[in-house]
Amino acid sequence: QVPLVESGGGRVQTGGSLRLSCAASGISFSSAIMSWYRQAPGKQRECVAAIASGDYTNYADSVKGRFTISRDNPSNTVHLQMNSLKPEDTAVYYCNAVINRRGARTEYWGQGTQVTVSS
User: CA 27 to CA 12: how far, in whole Å?
Assistant: First the structure.
């Protein structure tokens, strides 16, 4: 069983929108810090948005005001709504879960979903 499965990637034109989803299974989702990372060709993987169990959110400066992260604990799902997309948003987007429990840190990654923004 794969702990995290992303969906919703694709190709859009500049200014378009996409909604990524990440379905979690077999993990303590409600206590996890859920994040979306992205990695463009030749670049390091970077965190673009994160949401804690108490719905506190944090965004990279490059996506503030355009991307919104949200979570639905009953369905074990986290979403990333991406609006006003730019060519520089093109990357493979990864879902990430971090669970800290009793001093132990466990991290999970999804397989990634490609987002391509054409000019």
Answer: 32
